[in-house]
Hints:
The complex is a heterodimer. Chain A is mainly alpha-helical. Chain A has helices spanning about 10-20, 35-50, and strands spanning about 25, 55. Chain A is elongated and about 65 Å long. Chain B has 3 domains: about 1-165, no CATH class; about 175-350, Cysteine proteinases (Cathepsin B, Chain A); about 360-510, no CATH class. Chain B has helices at about 5, 25-30, 40-50, 65-75, 175-190, 195-205, 220-225, 245, 250-260, 295-300, 360-375, 385-390, 410-415, 430-435, 450-455, and strands at about 10-15, 55-60, 80-90, 110-120, 125-135, 140-145, 150-155, 155-165, 215, 230-235, 265-270, 280-290, 305, 310-315, 320-325, 330-335, 345-350, 400-405, 440-450, 460, 460-465, 480-485, 490-495, 500-505, 510.
Amino acid sequence: MGERVFSSPALVKAIEKIYGSKAKTVKMSLRYGRSVNAYIRKIEDGHKKAAESTLKFD
Amino acid sequence: MDAHRLVDPIRIRVKSFSSPFSSFRWVDNNYRNYPENYAIRRLFSLGRSHLAQTLLIEDIQPSGMIREENEEIKDYVADHSMEGLVRLSFWRTAFKRPNASDCRDENCIGYAILKHDKAPSRNYDEWHVFEAVFRKFDHPHNCVADPMRVRLKLGGFPIAVDGVIYAQQNQLNKACAQVALRSVISKILKRDIPYTEINRFARQALAGTFNPAIGLKAKQIQAVLDGFGIRFKDFDYSQHPYYERRKNPYRKYIYAGVESGNCALLGFSLKGPAVTYDSCHIIPLYGHTFNKDTWAPDAEISYFRVGEKLRYVSSINWTSSFLGHDDNFGPNFCIPRLYISPKQVLYVAELLKPGVVYSGAQAEAMSLRFLYTAIQRQQSSNVWWQRLAFYTEPEEQRIVLRAIAINRDTYIEHLSTESDWEGNHENPELIKVLSSWLPKHLWVVEVSVPQLFPANERKLGEIILNGELMISDGRGERSHFCMARLPSLFYFNLGKKKFLTIPSKLRSHLPVIRL
Lengths: 58, 515
């Protein structure tokens, strides 16, 4: 799994067939990677740790 | 699973619910418990609130899940006996005998099955609510996405009630955890689940003697959810420093769970000197209110912070209450969002839509990276793009995000049918391509701005994420990003920092997705 799933050449071809030269490829580096990854990881880690929870609901 | 709802009655009584009928007197005379059973009182209060005119009382024999429960209780309590079983239903019309014109879905407010168990060895002799389903109040501010349709027979007529199953513990084979699990799992799976199955999964989760009457540990709750194939993201606040209650608030888990038509579980400590820290109560939450005139977002907008320099406004700001049940007090309560102090909350679980593998809060955070980068980078003559750009500026960051988990077909239907404010529709040829390209299970993060979202319930675009990809499977969060639709422009992720852009016919705002 990974980026290839969504970089389907078939998609580009299908879209270019509809939009012709209006379809443009842009390159950009997404910002805030560190903050977002840390946040996402925190939820994952919290979930894993909850597997060891000793809470009891009665 | 529906046998106990479809069983024919052995006796039917019809009572006018209008004055001078007294709900208090009826409960006192027929289902009196010591101490008081507040949940039974609550059923009658709901009947009154919905302006019921008729109460139908059917004595029934145990069958299906109720018969199974009686057999299960015998395994734990040898001297158990069931002393009474009654099916109550509340009706909007007045009638003296059940008939086809009155006994229709739209006239039925709700029903309850009350069960009287006796176990002398446990000093137990009480009525409890085996189950109840009441429709939500008609007010449009009460939002319950994708309710369960419960089918049953009332007065000899087939009836369907839309709602969420409420159930009460009996301290014999079920406690608050089992009844909460039954509510949420039945809503998600759209089928009822017996306590015997819940207890079987719970028993297998831990070694040693199992007594369902004393409740479930978190590990057992997790095992039950796993057993029914329901994915979840949970958090035990007692394992973390206190500041996590602020940084990782329980409200985010609940809201993401209920907004997508799923549910959430909330565990909290009970106040009082006799209550130990490790003992807590758990309740199911399944909906929320939407208050477009809420003062707080305008005057003191509550940002959700992903990092020190990254924030947004969650649509939760316009939620005043969560809708849920409390087995101690009854069904269909509005539980004020800010009422349960973070100090009291010990555990939260966001239940995920089948096919989706990560949390709504994670989806919102992932969408921010694209949103705050792409909009600031791209110039556009579109006035709505410019407004969006203003709200994404680093010093502003007042974008409103609303994450909902839906399947591809629902999104395609939305994109095909909705139009922008000027009446423009999206290119059907493009929609056809998307319908064969997008993954089946999506997180759709709707993007809006203050005023447009609460007042009009409209949005400027959405970020589409692959909901099926495990967080650990992808290379960072970018592999989850499929595409974005923003005013007059689409972006498609081609990987390696490349994005394909094409014009969108939708140039302004669209209604948000309603489930």
